[in-house]
Structure formats: C-alpha cells, structure tokens
Amino acid sequence: MLAGFIAGAVLGVMASNIPTAFPKSITVQLIRRCPQQRDCLRPMAVRGMKDETSKVWSFFDARIDWIDPVDATTSAVDVTVLLEESAEPAPHGASKRGVVLAELHLPHTPCGTGVARVWVTQARRHAESALIPDGPFERLPSILYDLFLARALGRALAHEIGHYLLGTSRHTARGLMRAHFSPLELREPATQQRYGLDPVDRDALAFASTCRGTIAGASSR
After folding, report:
1. Could you say which of 9, 26, 132, 133 has the lowest number of CB atoms within 10 Å?
2. 28 in a domain, yes or no?
3. Among the listed residues 49, 47, 45, the one whose alpha carbon sits nearest the alpha carbon of residue 144
4. Among candidate residues 176, 187, 194, 98, the one with its CA nearest the CA of residue 148
5. φ, ψ for residue 156 (rounded to 5)?
6. Which H or E run contains 33?
7. Residue 8 confidence (pLDDT) above 90
8. Is 101 helix (H, G, I), strand (E, B) or coil?
C-alpha cells in the first residue's frame, strides 16, 4: 500500500557475484473508472501519468508496454491498473503517516496478474500540499495542474509496479521503494538518484519474475 506515495518492497540481500537482470518490458493494462464521466482526468493528465511511470522505469532500461483493455484478452498482462477517478480508498487503507495514493494486490500465483488501484482524489490532495502557500491547487493553470497530478499518479504507479516485480509489500529506506515520498518532490522532475533502486532491491530484482520471460528467476507472494 502507498501512503503519501507509499508502500515498499524489499527482498533479502542476494549474492553479489550474480549479475542483475532487469525486466526488459512490463505490460500494463490501464482501466479508467470514471462513473458517469464525472471528475474525469483530462487526456493530458492521463498521458502525463503514463509518461512519468515509463520515465521512472526507463532508469533501469525497462519499457512499460501500455495496452488497452480490449487488447488484454490477447495479450499477457503483468499489471492491471484501476485508475479510480472519483472513488475514495476504504478507511482501512488510510495511514497515519500520509495520504494513501495507491495499493497493489499481488497475484496468488507467480505467473498471475497484479492489480493496482490508484486514487486520483488522493493524488490531488497530495499534490495540493506541495503548492501551499502558492494558492489552491484547482486554480493553477491547467497545464501545471495536470503536470503535478501526473507526477503524483505516475510515481505512485511506478512504485506499485516495483511491488509487483519484487513480489513483496516491504519497503526500503530510500529510492523508489521507500515508504514515503515528500509532496515537495513534485516540484522537480524525477531523477534516478531519487527514484532509483538501492543495492538490495537491485539484487532482489535479478531473481524476480513475471513469468513473461522478461526477468530471470522467480518470486511471488
């Protein structure tokens, strides 16, 4: 689960003499859930979210392959993303340490599809706290509003994809898989230094597997 860009994932330290094998591609199906077309994201914000997620994983030479729901029946899907554009997370998903932006349900089998839920209303709250005292978030020019929101959503989703690949809900002290991301980070572009993987994660990812032939080894919860 991700609170204030929250969640995390770490496996134990692996042998340092084994080469790290990162995923070459990750197939992600995005399903937008916007009942009755109320409070829907603008297309620019959705594209920005995808671009931000792809950018973070490009730091590891991994490509995000985005597919439409209509194509999911004929394509292998690693992660299905439910973009909740108006719903709120259940009370049990709340954290005393921050705003819950997203959560991931790991598959029951090593070859299963992970399911991530990302809450737009929570991302708005998170982004707004980065802008005070600059004024109400909703009054920003649309291009800036969409930029901050896309960064919040994209980084949260990139984090949840990390949970899926590592097959665990644990988190690290730094990097992409740390427990908390500061709202003030939304003011700056993502960098590998801030959203990279620590040595434990890099070794663990060498043994993770989506059963798509993209990563060596196997691991799942």
Report:
1. 133
2. yes
3. 45
4. 187
5. -60, -45
6. strand 25-33
7. no
8. strand
Q: What is the CA radius of gyration of the chain?
A: 17
Q: State which amino acid sits at residue 97.
A: R
Parent domain of 59: 2-205
User: Looking at the whole model, is its pTM more than 0.70?
Assistant: yes
Across the range 31-42, mean pLDDT stands at 85
Contact by Cβ (8 Å): 180, 2 = no
Phi and psi at residue 30, in whole multiples of 5°?
-105, 125
C-alpha to C-alpha distance for 72 and 219, rounded to whole angstroms:
23
Tell me how many domains the chain contains. 1
Q: Encode burial over 80-103: b for 16+ CB neighbours within 10 A, e otherwise.
A: bbbbbbebebeeebebeebbbbbb
The pLDDT of residue 100 is: 86
Question: Across-strand partners of 3?
Answer: 100
Amino acid identity for residue 106 in this structure? L
* Residue 88, in any domain of the structure: yes
Is residue 80 helix, strand or coil? strand
> Which tens digits make up the pLDDT trace of 77-113?
999 999 999 888 876 544 445 678 999 999 888 778 9
At 111, the amino acid letter reads C
Phi, psi angles (nearest 5°) of residue 95:
-125, 145
Q: What is the model's pLDDT at position 145? A: 87
- DSSP string for residues in 41-73: PPHHHHHHHHHHHHHHHHTTT-EEEEE-GGGTT
Place of tokens 């994201």: 41
In a domain, 221, yes or no: no
